[in-house]
Amino acid sequence: MSDPGKGSSASAAAPAPGSDTYKGWLFKWTNYLKGYQRRWFVLSNGLLSYYRSVDLCFIRICAQGTDRTQAEMAHTCRGTINLATAHIDTEDACNIVLSSGGRTYHLKASTEVERQRWVTALELAKAKAIRMMNDQSDDSGDEEPTSQSDRSELQGTLKILVSKLDDLSTCNDLIAKHGAALQRSLSELEGLKVPVEGGEKIKAVNERATLFRITSNAMINACRDFLDLAETHSRRWQRALQYEREQRTHLEETIEQLAKQHNSLERAWREAPTLVSTTPSAPTANKGGSERLRKEEASDEDGDTEYFDAMEDSPAFITVTATENTQHRRSQSNLSGASGGQPNDWNQDDNMSPGHNDVSGKQLQPCRQRRTRVPDKPNYSLNLWSIMKNCIGKELSKIPMPVNFNEPLSMLQRLSEDLEYHELLDKAARCDSSLEQMCLVAAFSVSSYSTTIHRTAKPFNPLLGETYELDRREEFGYRSLCEQVSHHPPAAAHHVISQRGWTLWQEITIASKFRGKYLSIMPLGAIHLHFHSSGNHYVWRKVTSTVHNIIVGKLWIDQSGDIEIVNQRTKETCQLKFSPYSYFSRDVPRKVTGVVADSGGQAHYVLSGTWDDKIESAKILQSSRGGSGSEGKQKTVYQTLAPKLLWKKYPLPENAENMYFFSALALTLNEQEDAVGVTDSRLRPDQRLMEDGRWDEANSEKQRLEEKQRAVRRRREADASDALDEECEYDSGKEYEGYQPLWFHQRRDSVTGETNFVYKGGYWEAKERQDWSMCSNIF
């Protein structure tokens, strides 16, 4: 990328006295191949337009002001930014960032002084554009309607109103004149000697005439007030109407721009294989690459190609797939770049190149036939807002919810669903390379979100002391146990041990907030994974889940945030980024990217995919510094081998849309099993009633269980208070322990330093003895 401060002047033309126009050279970011390019910018009437160097001749011609050259100038304009709706920001001494309509423009001046001149001019132009748009001159009466047709229409309306008011005034005068004459005549009649009955009638007619005159005066006063009001507010109404018209025009232009971008994306996607094949294959081709870049510099932005500006949430690196010839040359010359000089540690046909998920465990004949469906979800309607309007800002676990918003699984069972793709860990346990093992662990961490894409229903909050076991030792070699160890805040401990060489444990506390339009769910706590043979110990945390359109629209779920997976033994890391969905983003929805690096920070693998479909990994051959990103930082360009599929989501079972969108594993989680603990989630009555479609009974049972749990908690708090009083009275020094989980106890983790619940043993032994006497009656 060329330095924008060298080789050309970027000074702006000083504006003429009293002129609102500002012109000059600036450098605009175009794309990662060309970087910053010199452009001629014109600021006028609240609009910032820019032109290519080759278009400058049209700008000079346009100074003549002819209609023909004005049309040519409009034709050669490369883009226009409306400052009234733009956000102006500065990054460093010379950079200017403009954000408007979902697009970001990165500009650069040659000096800090020049940058400040442009920022001042842009701010003044923006303020003026906003003043023109806003309604801040209601009482001035100096501004006229924006067009001759609007002015004529307003004047015509006022003339009609004045004419009608004159007619009403004339009628009022006549009414007052004739009314007065009528009253005089009636008064004279009253003075005459007439029968008593006739006099009373004349008096009644006189009173009615007086009321008529008063009413006519009130009518004419009301009409005069209406005219005054119309004259006062007509200009403000006209400006409001004009603003709405401009907004509609701007919206139409935005939609048209989005349609063009969509077409350009489709064209770029169709041309992608050609672009990849023309990528320079080796650093030795610098001469050819420089010649190609010079050609691109000469061609600049042609009329058939549209380059998009950098997005704020774009990844911090770029990947380029190497061709087969490049791979061969690098294998022969041992040019591995960032891979540490070991190009052959990528096994093309071994663990890291599956065509689908490893199903070696699933090929074993299961000991029992698991169920493949649950009763269809009933179609019961419910007014969501009547419940949600009083819950804004509260913890989700403290909101009393009917089962209409639930799915017939508990949070403990949802936690066990993380093992849907346990075969990734089985395969990772067989890896000799810790870096390849890290790739599989990263794919496993992403796979746990694949079941959430359609699962907008809320799982049941577990009762304190509730457990859930998932014993798949004979089928897949692992045993899983969850227990609700705390109720406020809600926390669950999970422990899994596999005969195939790994152990996983975690304590998850769910923090959630309802914000009116969306619901944020923040899982707190670390996940630990230990491989028995190698001793590798991995630690990571979950990202934030967001449920959108809580009140209006179709519910949808998004995952966003960063995951850092650390191998505590080797200090190797994997950085995963879950990109949040954006309407204006050009990336695929639900995108996940990541880089696996060794203890020295050297990148070895690039991960890419989506959290609802698949994850691929590509081995890095070479890395280099590329163009600047949206924050002015250089992005790394990774040249990689062809990507290998690590994980692919299993298709949902048939009729899943009517079965809460459960996966094959989820369909079996609440299946009745013998010999489970008496606190197991399968035995929870309200959850079982809901699964059977008896929702009214389930709601009643849910209220009973919650009230029973509250009574137990009040009793426990009373015991704690009594123990405290006894301690103070007798100074016994004995503290009240409070509630203690049955199968987990708190220990300080030697890796993270945090105190969390870990499995202390005894559950599976109690199951073999069928001795559950130590368990509480929570149901």
UniProtKB/TrEMBL annotation:
<feature type="compositionally biased region" description="Basic and acidic residues">
    <location>
        <begin position="697"/>
        <end position="710"/>
    </location>
</feature>
<feature type="compositionally biased region" description="Polar residues">
    <location>
        <begin position="275"/>
        <end position="284"/>
    </location>
</feature>
<feature type="region of interest" description="Disordered">
    <location>
        <begin position="697"/>
        <end position="727"/>
    </location>
</feature>
<keyword id="KW-0175">Coiled coil</keyword>
<keyword id="KW-0446">Lipid-binding</keyword>
<keyword id="KW-0597">Phosphoprotein</keyword>
<dbReference type="InterPro" id="IPR018494">
    <property type="entry name" value="Oxysterol-bd_CS"/>
</dbReference>
<comment type="similarity">
    <text>Belongs to the OSBP family.</text>
</comment>
<keyword id="KW-0445">Lipid transport</keyword>
<feature type="coiled-coil region">
    <location>
        <begin position="241"/>
        <end position="268"/>
    </location>
</feature>
<keyword id="KW-0472">Membrane</keyword>
<dbReference type="GO" id="GO:0008289">
    <property type="term" value="F:lipid binding"/>
</dbReference>
<feature type="region of interest" description="Disordered">
    <location>
        <begin position="134"/>
        <end position="153"/>
    </location>
</feature>
<dbReference type="InterPro" id="IPR001849">
    <property type="entry name" value="PH_domain"/>
</dbReference>
<protein>
    <recommendedName>
        <fullName>Oxysterol-binding protein</fullName>
    </recommendedName>
</protein>
<dbReference type="GO" id="GO:0016020">
    <property type="term" value="C:membrane"/>
</dbReference>
<feature type="compositionally biased region" description="Polar residues">
    <location>
        <begin position="332"/>
        <end position="351"/>
    </location>
</feature>
<dbReference type="InterPro" id="IPR037239">
    <property type="entry name" value="OSBP_sf"/>
</dbReference>
<dbReference type="Pfam" id="PF00169">
    <property type="entry name" value="PH"/>
</dbReference>
<dbReference type="InterPro" id="IPR000648">
    <property type="entry name" value="Oxysterol-bd"/>
</dbReference>
<dbReference type="Pfam" id="PF01237">
    <property type="entry name" value="Oxysterol_BP"/>
</dbReference>
<feature type="region of interest" description="Disordered">
    <location>
        <begin position="271"/>
        <end position="375"/>
    </location>
</feature>
<keyword id="KW-0813">Transport</keyword>
<feature type="compositionally biased region" description="Acidic residues">
    <location>
        <begin position="298"/>
        <end position="312"/>
    </location>
</feature>
<dbReference type="InterPro" id="IPR011993">
    <property type="entry name" value="PH-like_dom_sf"/>
</dbReference>
<dbReference type="GO" id="GO:0006869">
    <property type="term" value="P:lipid transport"/>
</dbReference>
<feature type="compositionally biased region" description="Acidic residues">
    <location>
        <begin position="136"/>
        <end position="145"/>
    </location>
</feature>
<feature type="domain" description="PH">
    <location>
        <begin position="19"/>
        <end position="127"/>
    </location>
</feature>
